[in-house]
Amino acid sequence: MNDLRRIDANLVVVLDAVLRERSLTRAGLAVGMSQPAVSGALAKLRALLDDQLLIRNGRSFDLTPKAERLQPLVRDALREVGRTFNLRPMFDPATSDRRFHIWASDYVLATMSSTLRGILRDEAPDTSVEFGTLTGQQPVSPVDLLRADVVISSVNRGIPGKRQSLFSDSLVCIASAENPRLRGARFELEDLADLPYAQVVFAENVITISDDALSAAGIEPRVAMTLPGFLSLPFMIQGTDMYGMVPSRVAELYAEPLGLVVADTPLPHSTLIEAVFWHPSKTNDPALRWLVSVLRKTAEVVEFGTEFAEVWPAPPSQPRPSGQTTRSGYPTDASRRGGATAIAAARSGEEL
């Protein structure tokens, strides 16, 4: 292992440029160095890393396998160093041009991104967001929480770090409207045991709440297909004899166009809670604290509708007329009470 005291930090900047540009001349232009100086730095890097890094291929250069592995690590390391020295005691969203990095599932992106964009446009017009897709089988480690500003995922996924719960959803059973086992848009337990099951898989060894509900009912489902996210599951089920469990917002979006039905079952009600996670070392970053507050505001619009974003939860003395629904499609009173109760319970003990 190299002694960090012997390593010139400027070499990391050169390494990033060389790996990105794959040209000593272009790398020199990127970092303000002459081509001979970059060549000398590359020689030092080759000695330190015991690897050629660049291999000539005709008139161009290719990265070695080790260089390919190093490239994202070097980029992330420089990003973190930049954050360290750019961290200011104050953060003004109205004038900031910060680029935030958010990892989230396809379901979260589909649910929150448009509302989030509207809030950012109004409060922080020069900021931007780079989304990274969080797939079902991808475990999230403390290192990942350093690479991203925040990660948004379900609370049962076992993600380390600090968190704030954002919004809730009900998991519902969906199936093709032509499924022969449906009786009055309902499946019995024996149907759930016999029919093929389309399963959404989170990280390894993480049991989803829908699978937990099936297990509690004594059902070991016949898994016919596994998927890394909720959003593609309705497309897999259409026209087949499979069934699956998805958040109700996904079912509302795709059931009618794809010829699916939300099937009643004897299983107990399952509530999915999505939360924002971050590394504890970032808690005092004013920009991150602002971002979390914006994500909470976004989630409240998603959960209850625009009129509930300012006062949450809405006072029980101000019910809306019976029969009206929120943006999510839930009956307003039930959604507000159930969602507020679930999120309030989840947020108990959570501190920013």
UniProtKB/TrEMBL annotation:
Q: Which residues form the HTH lysR-type domain?
A: 7-64
Keywords carried by this UniProt record: DNA-binding, Transcription, Transcription regulation
What are the Polar residues biased-composition ranges? 320-329
Q: Residue ranges of region Disordered?
A: 312-352
Q: Which domain of life does the UniProt lineage start with? A: Bacteria
Q: Where is the composition biased (Low complexity)?
A: 337-352
User: What CDD domains is this protein classified in?
Assistant: PBP2_Nitroaromatics_like
Q: Name one GO molecular function term.
A: DNA-binding transcription factor activity
Q: Which family does it belong to?
A: Belongs to the LysR transcriptional regulatory family.
Q: What is this protein called?
A: LysR family transcriptional regulator
**Origin species:** Microbacterium album
Read off the lineage from the record: Bacteria, Bacillati, Actinomycetota, Actinomycetes, Micrococcales
